[in-house]
Specification:
globular; 27 strands; four-stranded antiparallel beta sheet; Neuraminidase
């Protein structure tokens, strides 16, 4: 999300991000391998293509089998359908949309920062509020959302996109579970700025990154409950980018936004390599007909790279 840029300058590198994103020179695409295992997931000759550009700030990619990608634009305040030829169609105008996913019926879910809520968006651009409060208090700014192996909705609620001038009503930044009847249960409250989250393919682990601490936490997961919190890995490298959106492949490897691009991790917490992206990414999603394509929302653009790995698609993905 765009607030991560503000978080970097305020919390970590004061002043380093003061220049507008459009004035920063593009990085050179590069595949940096720190382990031979990286090449079993990404081909040496893999190329990165820019699928579309001209956005304000891209987030929340979700692949639809109809052949397009849903993309949130946090600055243009719209959710778009983006096609392979770069064509864009606005689905809905919405203040600061963020992370998205599909529910079990293939309906689009989105974290709406201005509404301070998790919403469901219909194909004709209308939305329904699913949850905006915990114990009577408004959420901070829901950020990313996934469907769990128990069919419930899981989402993070940092203050990263809390609307300027509005009061923080919940005195912590949590991770929540939303059930099918609208019940909201707090799972985690001790993280500084919980951001991206994802479940392992076997449903036994929940990963959540903390953008302020610049690390990834992992929890044991069973029956809608988490336990045994520990640090899975750190992304404490200097420069643009902090842990943000994340996805897994079917083998349990993780692909997590970090400094310079997408950091690739194995399930044991080894950093295998980095996909350096020209613009700083915020999120990513698997897609294409065979789920070998990794779509990356970065700055004003959407990028795509083919992988050897097959993406893990959570329940509800179309």
């Amino acid at each position: 999300m765009k607030t991560i840029v503000r978080a970097i300058s305020v919390l970590f590198l004061a002043g380093a991000m003061s220049a507008p994103a459009q004035e920063k020179p593009l990085r050179k695409f590069e595949l940096q391998a720190f382990s031979p295992a990286f090449w079993t997931l990404i081909d040496h000759k893999a190329t990165l293509s820019r699928m579309a550009t001209g956005f304000g700030f891209t987030e929340g990619p979700v692949w639809d089998h109809a052949g397009f990608l849903y993309v949130s634009d946090e600055e243009q305040n719209k959710i778009y359908r983006v096609y392979a030829d770069g064509r864009k169609e606005a689905l809905i105008e919405l203040g600061d949309p963020d992370g998205s996913t599909f529910d079990e019926q293939g309906r689009l879910l989105d974290c709406a920062s201005v509404l301070r809520a998790v919403i469901r968006v219909s194909r004709d651009g209308k939305y329904e509020l699913l949850a905006d409060r915990f114990e009577g208090k408004r959420f901070n700014s829901p950020n990313d959302v996934v469907i769990g192996p128990d069919h419930a909705i899981y989402f993070t609620d940092p203050t990263l996109d809390l609307v300027k001038g509005e009061k923080q009503e919940i005195p912590f930044q949590g991770v929540y579970r939303l059930d099918g009847k609208g019940g909201v249960r707090l799972l985690v409250k001790d993280m500084s700025q919980p951001n991206g989250l994802a479940f392992s393919p076997d449903g036994k682990r929940l990963y959540v990154d903390d953008s302020e601490q610049r690390n990834i936490r992992v929890f044991d997961f069973a029956g809608g409950q988490v336990s045994n919190e520990r640090v899975f890995g750190d992304e404490n490298e200097p420069g643009d980018g902090v842990p943000d959106g994340m996805r897994l492949d079917v083998a349990g490897n993780l692909y997590i936004v970090g400094p310079k691009g997408i950091w690739v991790w194995d399930a044991e917490g080894h950093h295998l390599g980095t996909i350096v992206v020209p613009e700083q990414p915020a999120n990513l999603a698997w897609g294409g007909k065979d789920y070998h394509t990794l779509y990356i929302t970065a700055g004003k653009s959407v990028y795509a790279i083919r992988s050897k790995a097959v993406g893990f698609m959570p329940i509800g993905s179309k």
